[in-house]
Amino acid sequence: xxxxxxxxxxxxxxxxxxxxxxxxxxxxxxxxxxxxxxxxxxxxxxxxxxxxxxxxxxxxxxxxxxxxxxxxxxxxxxxxxxxxxxxxxxxxxxxxxxxxxxxxxxxxxxxxxxxxxxxxxxxxxxxxxxxxxxxxxxxxxxxxxxxxxxxxxxxxxxxxxxxxxxxxxxxxxxxxxxxxxxxxxxxxxxxxxxxxxxxxxxxxxxxxxxxxxxxxxxxxxxxxxxxxxxxxxxxxxxxxxxxxxxxxxxxxxxxxxxxxxxxxxxxxxxxxxxxxxxxxxxxxxxxxxxxxxxxxxxxxxxxxxxxxxxxxxxxxxxxxxxxxxxxxxxxxxxxxxxxxxxxxxxxxxxxxxxxxxxxxxxxxxxxxxxxxxxxxxxxxxxxxxxxxxxxxxxxxxxxxxxxxxxxxxxxxxxxxxxxxxxxxxxxxxxxxxxxxxxxxxxxxxxxxxxxxxxxxxxxxxxxxxxxxxxxxxxxxxxxxxxxxxxxxxxxxxxxxxxxxxxxxxxxxxxxxxxxxxxxxxxxxxxxxxxxxxxxxxxxxxxxxxxxxxxxxxxxxxxxxxxxxxxxxxxxxxxxxxxxxxxxxxxxxxxxxxxxxxxxxxxxxxxxxxxxxxxxxxxxxxxxxxxxxxxxxxxxxxxxxxxxxxxxxxxxxxxxxxxxxxxxxxxxxxxxxxxxxxxxxxxxxxxxxxxxxxxxxxxxxxxxxxxxxxxxxxxxxxxxxxxxxxxxxxxxxxxxxxxxxxxxxxxxxxxxxxxxxxxxxxxxxxxxxxxxxxxxxxxxxxxxxxxxxxxxxxxxxxxxxxxxxxxxxxxxxxxxxxxxxxxxxxxxxxxxxxxxxxxxxxxxxxxxxxxxxxxxxxxxxxxxxxxxxxxxxxxxxxxxxxxxxxxxxxxxxxxxxxxxxx
Length: 901
Ligand code: SF4
Hints:
Layout: E1 2-7, H1 10-18, E2 25-29, H2 32-46, E3 54-56, H3 57-68, E4 73-75, H4 77-95, H5 102-116, H6 121-131, H7 140-155, E5 158-160, H8 164-168, E6 181-185, H9 192-201, E7 207-212, H10 221-228, E8 235-238, E9 253-258, H11 259-275, E10 283-287, H12 290-304, E11 308-309, E12 312-315, H13 320-331, H14 338-347, H15 356-363, H16 376-382, E13 391-393, H17 394-408, H18 415-427, E14 433-435, H19 436-449, E15 451-455, E16 462-466, E17 477-480, H20 485-488, H21 498-508, H22 519-527, E18 534-542, H23 553-558, H24 571-577, H25 581-595, E19 600-601, E20 609-610, H26 612-620, H27 622-630, H28 645-660, H29 670-684, H30 691-716, E21 722-735, E22 740-742, E23 750-763, E24 768-775, H31 795-807, E25 810-818, E26 827-830, E27 847-848, H32 850-873, E28 875-876, H33 884-887
Parallel strand pairs: 1-7, 1-8, 2-3, 2-6, 4-5, 6-7, 9-18, 10-16, 10-17, 11-16, 17-18, 20-23, 24-25, 26-27
Antiparallel strand pairs: 12-15, 13-14, 19-28, 21-22, 21-23, 23-24, 25-26
The structure holds iron/sulfur cluster.
């Protein structure tokens, strides 16, 4: 017998619940929270409840599915998606469907399942389509969906849980005989399919359906239509409620300029209620977007010391051991990626101590598992142990996964976790033959869905819930939060147009679910009618992320012009206000120390030997110098298909040395360059066994070498008395008493400066010299000589002074040699009687008088005195001489310059 009880007010359901006897009746609800709440009420009233006395509707249907079709397995939607891809792979050519349409097919199969799983609907549907003048666009998907559904349900004997009610239509429902009266209290969640089944079950069972019947029911045509369609089959009784048309007070609808203010209001409201004696468990915070609010709300409530009843959960995939497990599996395939390799390699860190920076440089550019050969230990651990293209049965897959697990958890410390994962995986899949990559995707998605409780909730805290869970909750004080359109508006989820759904329903009584009207909106209106002492409804203009929010219709129906409200400060506000100036000073001191915004002394480092580039670094920013020289930080260039820039620079310098020494440029050509490069390749272990990658690099280097030879030959043939020194080690002392460069080691405090000079050309007859520094192209660090001192370019000046003392050369000029363009005009030469005057095309700017050189040296010496004195004082700061130096600085991610104004 089917019986409808129309309830005008949600409190009428509470009255019915008070009469509920678990011995004679089974109460069926839509959500877990309501089920737990009714169980609690039973314990309080009767001291017990039996398992079948209170059920979730999904569990009720699942139970009958298991009893009536025990061999059909209920699997996860992810597994169904994989089966759909398999279906396309096997039958795609029959149905003219391609792999990229798998997602659309899944949607159609899900939407049409209520029809296609019905024993007679397919024929009816086809006839209906045939008779239509204009065929609906979706009609071509009917036969494909039917074929796909047969493949899943008949060939593989499984369905997904969302299709259970559809599937039950074709089973022997007459076998469902329930010993007690069944009360279905599903509110807005009752689907038309379920209503159809209940109508059938009512022949042999006593079924009462609680139907919400509020005065405003016409606003929700589709949600309540489900009940209306079957009202003719049932005896109907209606409850009377005097408060059914009571209006809510407009004052209780409050709008804030931002969600932060809304949260602060909620916090102070809860605190006020608790201070006035309200028990926290009698306070409810409800929202259609509760997870958006929760992190900030939780922060404020915690600051106030207010407990809440909200579990802290985390997905299994976020656990360390699971992450290492998945990374190890991926690292053993050809699909290995840098992030997976890094994580899995770290699992074996005890045995494989390899400096992280070097490991990163070796594998950041990881194209496939072949690159693992860059580190023997990584190759031995991971190289090609798993072939993703191989097809295998589920149990074979699980065996392989267990073997990987043993590598990350050899002592089986997390055995229970593993057992849970395997059990869930077996329940949610069937033992078919799939590609290993598909099994892996399934495993990852299951791990992402499964949750574990990280923190148990307090039993006596404020209840924080989504609106749809507020069905039977008892609370004297309620806060309805986040009532903007984004959380309350309904979604169009069906691919089948509403007009077709209505027509099919009216003409054939075929059960397709209506597209979704907003359940949250319905439930908000319905549950908010329930009696309580005090409740407030809030929303905001702007979200915490700065998105504008549209106020919901429900809110505006109750208050078109909400007024601003005053509310007391939260404890977080009070703490911030109490932030006194002294604390501020302490903080400033700490920040200064942490950011190194002002010089601090680090006396541990005692640098006595410096390279010219160290002196340049120090002048640009003393932290830059400290990072490399003091902390010995080092950045390794990434290994990949390209030669790293540092290695490439060394190769080219080496090539130029080979060309210039002994004036080889006069005699050698491509053959000699090629032989030289091959020698270097072996010596530097470049691209071993990878000729295909080395080839293009070699060709480029040969081209550079030949161009360089041609230029040097043409330029230097007239300079027969010029000799070349290449890659010479330059050494000079800086006397900290006399503040000068000297070749003799001073007795007092001093620094040793050592470096390698690219090239020194000396005229044998006049002993005049030319210092040359190779650069690929002009950059901001290779200016005309008059900018050198200001731009921290000291190298050429240091070498010029040093070679005078070391080799007795005079009238030294210095110049950058840009080898890509073969230009040599950024430098200087004292033009008086200088044999190098015609050596390159010096411009007016670079040919200088002796006085100009004296001025240059003088300003350089002043700068050196300042720098060496500061280095000696051992003070350092994150303080670039110019922000332009930060642009290309390798420590930009390490120092705190971004935190400084
Ligand atoms: S990024 Fe700027 S402030 Fe930081 S170390 Fe480099 S030069 Fe100094």
